[in-house]
Every structure is written in structure tokens, then in C-alpha cells.
Amino acid sequence: MPEKRVTVASKVGLHARPAALVAKAAAAQPVAVLIAKDGGDPVAAGSVLNLMTLAAGHGDEVIISADGEGAQAAVDAVAELVATDLDG
């Protein structure tokens, strides 16, 4: 199962607009993408509500993972968004 550790770049964390953008990208992937804070339980990254309840703030490290065909590309796509400041 591919996974990638990435630091949340958005100043508001994975909340509001950044959460919506990440959830949309995750839901568009051909496999289910999971996201977790270090030491926490993974949640479905395709849900805005899940992302907001994750309470991942600016500078927090999260782990993005997926399983199945196309999993690495899905993880990379979602990780790139999380690592981008989406507040603008």
C-alpha cells in the first residue's frame, strides 16, 4: 500500500476551502484515498467532513495512503494538494 508523509501547507489547515479542494481531488481518484494524522486513525480523504474532523492544522504532518491499481498516482495527487498553500 503506497503512502506518503506530507506537511499541511495551508494556513487554515485542512479546513473549509482547502478541505473541499482536497476532498474533491481524492474523490476523483480511481481508488479510495485515506489520510491520517501521525498516530491517528485514517479517514476517507474524499469527505470534507472527515478532513475537517481530522483537525490537521498548518504544519501538521499527515499520512496519505491508498490501495489498488493506480494507488501511487492517487497518493501523489492528493499529497501534492495537501503540501500546497490552498488558502488563496
From TrEMBL:
It holds the Pfam family PTS-HPr. Residues 1-88 form the HPr domain. The keyword Cytoplasm applies. It is found in: Cytoplasm. InterPro entries: HPr (IPR050399), HPr-like (IPR000032), HPr-like_sf (IPR035895), PTS_HPr_His_P_site (IPR001020). It comes from the Bacteria. Gene3D superfamilies: HPr-like (3.30.1340.10). Keywords: Cytoplasm, Phosphotransferase system. General (non sugar-specific) component of the phosphoenolpyruvate-dependent sugar phosphotransferase system (sugar PTS). This major carbohydrate active-transport system catalyzes the phosphorylation of incoming sugar substrates concomitantly with their translocation across the cell membrane. The phosphoryl group from phosphoenolpyruvate (PEP) is transferred to the phosphoryl carrier protein HPr by enzyme I. Phospho-HPr then transfers it to the PTS EIIA domain. This is Phosphocarrier protein HPr.
